[in-house]
Amino acid sequence: MAQRPLEGKVVLDLTTALAGPYATLLLAGLGARVIKIENPERGGDAARNNSPYVTPDGLSVQRTSADDMSVSMLSRGRNKESMTLDLKNPHGKQVFLDLAAQADIVVENYSAGVTARLGIDYAALSAANPRLVYTSISGFGSQGGPGTGKAMDTIIQALSGVMMTAGSPGDAPIRFGLPIGDLVAPLFAVIGTLSAVIQADSTGRGQHVDVSMLGALTSMVAAEPFDAFEMIGLPTRTGALVPRLAPFGTFEAEDGYFAICAPTDGFAHGVLTAIGRPDLITDPRFARRDGRVHNADDLHAMIGQWAADKPLAKVITDLESHGAPCAEVRSPRDAVRDPIVVERGEVVPLTHPTYGNVVELFGSGLPITMSGSETTLDRPAPALGEHTTQILADLLGYDESHIADLVESKAL
Q1: pLDDT tens digit string along 30-50?
Q2: pTM for the full predicted model
Q3: Exposure check for the chain: N or C terminus, fewer CB within 10 A?
């Protein structure tokens, strides 16, 4: 097996729920040793209690035994080691400080100010380990935010403006089904973390990487000039169609939906040919993009009428045969089973550490293919605290007596 890019790097994972664990999942897939530190009093990561669960008999809304594991944890816990540690316990805090002295990276997603109160913030840890890269993922950034200062994906979607980019004019705000706030922030966090690691390797100094969910998602919203659209009278919400790129959007066939993205003259002419109107290629209303945008309603109506009584497969074949970019609209279940993404490891089967593949489930892989490195998520999620003793013995050199004292003190 080829060496993994982050092999030899040790990550202390203080995260819970989705945004933080997704960041450390990516680091684990890149080969880092990720040690997931979980609170024994609270039952570990909150995702461990997310229904549904995998049981010996398949999926269940409720946990049926101690070995059952949530699908969320099956996905987010892969390639990680789990140890229990009470950071409010003085002995537990000292264990963490010992670990941080050996680590390369710490990732946390506490609310702003919590790590300082616990005495495990960047200032405290960098004093003992100057090379440490300390990454924080929070709702609003290390300075805190409005109200309670706490934020989850829907709160961030609401504040970022993204809810007002989907749907049609006049619709109520639309919450994206995919928790994009929780998923965009960890991508930026990983980019920042790896950049800081490269710099630390050359300078010997780590740094604090501070990523906010609000900032990450709002920066993505700003990637499209929605404010400019409003200034010139273009709607920011256009529903299933995008008039300024016509022909562009989703349409209904006899037995399903499909998407067309044909903003260039060549692509648009292919659509016109496919729908049996090659005569419109030279029509001033549709020959060039400005004309198509001005007459977008008529153009989209023609496409809809053409497809309405045709099987979806026939629609796709006709469009593709004339070079028009198109695709069927698939369900998530079908999409994650696409042979292309499965073969490339971008989506991978989930395996229960005890029950195996008792039910067919898929989770995100690492969608980065590298010619000289292995980038896979190939180990199942751990049970709560499964590796505690091993980590303390191997990484810190604690003997059995020391570990027993920690257990007695309820630090573990």
Answers
A1: 999 999 999 998 889 999 999
A2: 0.95
A3: N
